[in-house]
Hints:
Helix content: over 70%
Low-confidence stretches: none
Distance between the termini: 23 Å
Mean pLDDT: 91
Amino acid sequence: MAWWGILPWIFFWAGSGIPYPRDLHATVLIQGVLTPFAVGFLFTMLPRRLSAPGPQPWQVLFAAVLPPLHALLVWQRELGFAHALWSLEACMLFVFAATRIWGRRGARTGPAAFQWVPIGFLLGTVGAAILSLAQFAPTWVSAPIHYLAWLWLTQGLFLCLVLGIGALFLPLTAHKEPSVDVTQTPNPSQRRLGHGLAALGILAGFALEAYGWPTLGRATRALSALLTLVFSARIHRFPSAPGTQRKLIWAASWCLPIGLAVAAFYPSLPHVGLHIFFLGGIGLITLSVALHVGLAHSSGQELVNRAVPAIRFFGAFMAIALALRITAEHDALHRFA
């Protein structure tokens, strides 16, 4: 699926005659590549962490079968049907997370930051549904609403997921510090309120950008994300546990607020900051978490706490890709080459 989302740019550069692949690239990578990573992680982590029921077989099958069908529709430029189909998966994931985090299906509460997870899938569901509607009835969806839905889907979904899982996963990987349930912490209502206010800040930032204040909107999201990651995930502390992937996860978490801040205060080339956010933040943290979880739950457990050369090469390639993508914004004539 990742090849499916990236190769069209090479075909476009080579003059193959395919249309400009912006929508294909973004939607396949987000809905077809990042979403399966999130699903695999949440289907195993949430039931275990909350002592809650796991997914039903039909939910696993649905989440596995839908991404290639969605990507096929995107490739055929049937974006309305593609977004509609994916919104069904996002709705299923919202219900799965909400019934365990906000409902009574979990015997434990988990950290206060977990409430970001259903918020993220809710944004993805509504955003994809609006984008689908805009394809079939464009006069029904105004330009600001269309842009707001695009922001919810492309940025809001995985920003919220990182903020929600970060409070659990970042301290655990960086310092081997397990998280505690919010009910076992002082002032649990204040912790929930803090995350609720940060979520309002994120939502306000999206609305401000969609309705004509991109600098203020991105800066608001950057500040909300930074405060959440510092206070709940403690990213201001450099990783103390050994392992290259731990440092990559920590560095990627910093790329989220930094990327939004650069996009806010460097408005002439917003894609510089946005690709720090997407490639250096969302992409790197997704793949690094996958590496860590894959090693920790397989025969590679002895590699979790070592500086594995292959993971160092992976980190270097991601850094080179990000540097080249940023450089391309400054050289429009040779951007695709």
